[in-house]
Amino acid sequence: MTAPHDRPSASELLESVREWLERDVLTSVEGRLQFHTRVAINAMNIVIRELELGADQEVTHAEVMKALAVANDRELADAIRAGDFDANLTDVLQALKPVVEDKVRVANPGYLR
Amino acid sequence: MPHDVIAEMTDGIRAVMGATSVTQLRRLSGGASRETWRFMADETDFVLQRVRQGTPLGLGAEPSVLKAAFAAGVPVPELVIDGSQSDVLERPFMIVRAVGGETIARKILRDDEFSTARTNLVGQLGRAAAQLHRIDTASVPGLTVEDQIHRYRVAMDTVGEPHPVFEAAFRWLEQNKPTSTGTSVVHGDFRLGNVMVNGNGLAAILDWELAHLGDPMEDLGWLCVRAWRFGGAHPAAGLGSYEQLFDAYEAESGIRPDFDVVRWWEILGTLKWGIICISQANTHLSGLVRSHELAAIGRRVCENEYDLIEMLLEGVA
User: What domains lie within chain B, and their CATH numbers?
Assistant: First the structure.
């Protein structure tokens, strides 16, 4: 929960809507609407996980940027494109692995091997 | 759908087909640029594809590719009417003989009725790919060679978001370009979802919209991209090994696909799908089409970054 807000927290509020979608909506629609309800539930779960994990992941991302001596993804992307990392592409990918895993952990944790 | 639209289209179809009766005309879901309709003419099922309203391009080379593929013995629906130059139905269209079966990948991969199909499918896809790559390129004059790297470089720059892993993949692909396997007709979207499958397996290859000329190994690599395994445990269409796919391809063509070349195309395919995800999310974000489904696809971009890291670090200590 974040001051000055009252309960429910942002996650708790989202969870309540997700539960309603799962319990009442999903069971009473079919076809395209049912599919779009599943997409909505999935999107809410992504936000719920991001609210839980996002702050720590931001720290990890900043550490990786620092280790690669760049300010942000834009600078890194431009440098890779310019060929600055051609000699050690695998090192860059190795360094980015935990960042990408964090993104997958929020977007679709079941995808991680 | 107002009744008179159906009645008008039914009349138009009856005229172009020279049929006595056209019945049960109904719209099915379709792709981004095509409407798909189904109907019966004189007791036989047909499928009509018509260019969507507001889509500037016509059907392109698709009718001629279908015709050439059918003539070459590739399992495809038989083209009955090429309406690419016709205005009878207001917009360009084509009519094919309907092929029965299922296209939804999750059903094909999981439902009991497709258990025999699952055993046969990878071999059938390998053979069908070899057959389609044998189509005489001169018989399809509308097709052009397309530089896939350039096409998706432009697509990514159009949106303009920074993706360091994709930049690394672009560099790697440029540095490790394989020698060309040759120039063939390439289907361009050869995967589950775009094939009709019945109880025995492959019934027809559909959706030739993205056909072009290029390295035939592009189709095999795309078939193995993790997104097109739909959760299946194996690389080829989620169902089989590279070996099974290559064995079938070789049995039909006499050409053994080179794993490293197919893998290069699989890596490019993964990058491509990642960039398509960015573009789809951007269709929502730019306001062109507001849709939470398109928005959510933006969060699938990282699945492709994850797969690219895994593939590009393979064999690296």
Answer: 3-97 (3.30.200.20), 105-312 (3.90.1200.10)
